[in-house]
Amino acid sequence: MTSRSETVTGDAEARTATVPEEAAPADLAAAGPTTGGPTDGVDADGPGRRGPGTGLLALGVVLGLLLGLAAGLLAPGLFRPGNDSPEAGFARDMSTHHAQAVEMSILAHEKTSDPDVRTLAADIALTQQAQIGTMQTWLKTWGLSPTSSQPRMAWMPDGAGAVKDGLMPGMATDAERAQLRAATGRDFDILFLRLMRDHHLGGIHMAQGVIELTDDEQVTALAQSMVNGQKKEIELINSLLIRLGAQ
């Protein structure tokens, strides 16, 4: 995850970027969970209510997206990855991977009564939505479609073996997400934290993969910030689980 200190303004044209096979980010903020096909691990079902501050989080998600779109326009350089390049594949796949984290985090922000869990959820939603904006702007700048005919993880050596039932590393299954929506109280908090820990571990694996493959400084910088940020959040998740009497 990158720091939310990338507060810059972008041009209006960049705001039309979309996440591959997902709902438009503005729709995500308005509706709560992200929509998408079952193989992406994101669906249209959402919680039936909104908790305190959820409207502000939704606004923050939209603003984070716009800041990410603008950040993707900074110093584009002369590097133009091809359609089947690791950089393009990473931007597409990580956008989808992030979209599920945003969905689960918005749900957690609505349902949890634990202030530490709510703060973590808001941070994940805002930061990863901004990163989606950055990666989608890259694709547009490179003259590439946000979607590809290539299979998930095809850009990463042996990446296809990491895809299970159409889900990239660490992504929650439909059954797990249904269980999360149905859970309440402490059980919800523990399940959210465990699912997000797995999600982060998968995201770190993907980010480290592109770092080894790319020569693009912007891609390397964003991927490394994801690794650093998500490792720190895993430490926080582990401490919260200990406090809740779970591992």
Give the topology, please.
Layout: H1 25-31, H2 54-71, H3 86-111, H4 115-141, H5 174-182, H6 185-213, H7 217-243
In words, what does this structure look like?
With 247 residues, the protein is mainly alpha-helical. Helices cover 58% and strands 0% of the residues. The protein contains seven helices and no strands. It is elongated, with a radius of gyration of 17 Å. The protein starts with 24 loop residues before the first helix and ends with a helix. The N terminus is likely disordered.
Number of strands: 0
Q: Helix-strand pattern, N to C?
A: HHHHHHH
Level of helix content? 55-70%
Overall geometric form? elongated
Nearest-integer average pLDDT:
80
Outline of the structure:
Helix 1 (25-31) runs antiparallel to helix 2, helix 5 packs antiparallel against helix 6 and helix 6 (185-213) runs antiparallel to helix 7 (217-243). The longest helix is centred in the C-terminal third of the chain and has 29 residues, at 185-213. With 247 residues, the protein is mainly alpha-helical.
List keywords for this structure.
about 250 residues, mainly alpha, 7 helices, about 0% strand
